[in-house]
Amino acid sequence: MPALLNTVETPGSAAKPVAPKALERCELCEAFAIAASPVRATLAAGAEIFRQGDRAGMVYRVLSGAAISYRLLNDGRRQVTEFHVAGDFLGLEAGLEYRTTADALGGATVAAVRRADLARLAATDSGLARALWQMSVRAFHRSEDHAMILARQGATERVAAFLLDYADRVGADDIVDLPMTRQDMADHLGLTIHTVSRTLSQLQDQGLIEARSSRHVRLLRRDLLERIRA
After folding, report:
1. Which terminus of the chain has a smaller tally of CB atoms within 10 A, N or C?
2. CA end-to-end span of the chain
3. Each residue's pLDDT tens digit, 148-194
4. Closest CA to 82 of 74, 217, 91, 118
5. Which of 152, 16, 168 is nearest to 83 (CA)?
6. Helix (H, G, I), strand (E, B) or coil at 207
7. In this structure, are residues 100 and 81 in contact, taking their beta carbons and an 8 Å threshold?
8. Angle at CA of residue 97, ends 91 and 149, nearest 5°
9. CB-CB contact of 175 with 163 (8 Å)
10. CA distance to 48, 64, 88, 106, per residue, from 43 (Å)
11. How far is CA 43 from the centre of its chain?
């Protein structure tokens, strides 16, 4: 977690969000604004936000850019659990330790408050307590949906579902800029990087997408991609 505390900005410093729809007013957002000892940092690509196994003392919000959460398995493999976009919260752990490691993707601005401060505010604010509960439920549902995808869908379905889901989360109609690498995608989808690249090429050959580069994808036929995802 020291990455944030080593690059603190003043509370009044500006951060320009890239996904305005994700930064709408909410009880948890307001709690970040009024909590004691606010921390805001601009992180370079790959900078660590928190580490798996560290004490879960802070809760974070992505203000701009993106972040990645992953778990290192006993055999050395990496399981990417989630990609976080502007407006997302991370570090809301049920236990005392972070269950994943979180890093900035391609640079990000992140705000943080102490977990104890949020707990004190939630004890007297029913709206904040409800917001924290709803956040936990949504995270559980996303995890459950992801497990279903890994268990029942093939490579094409997984990649199509990922592209559509990410586009929806960042409010993109057809052009999607991906901050993650294809290896990141592979580790999230339970595929090899070769399979991800081959699947993207197949979707492009079928006229469903246009992969102008490894990080820039245009969704040409959302309707057909939706059918594949279903």
Report:
1. C
2. 39
3. 777 778 999 999 999 999 999 999 989 999 999 999 999 999 999 99
4. 91
5. 168
6. coil
7. yes
8. 60
9. no
10. 8, 10, 16, 9
11. 15
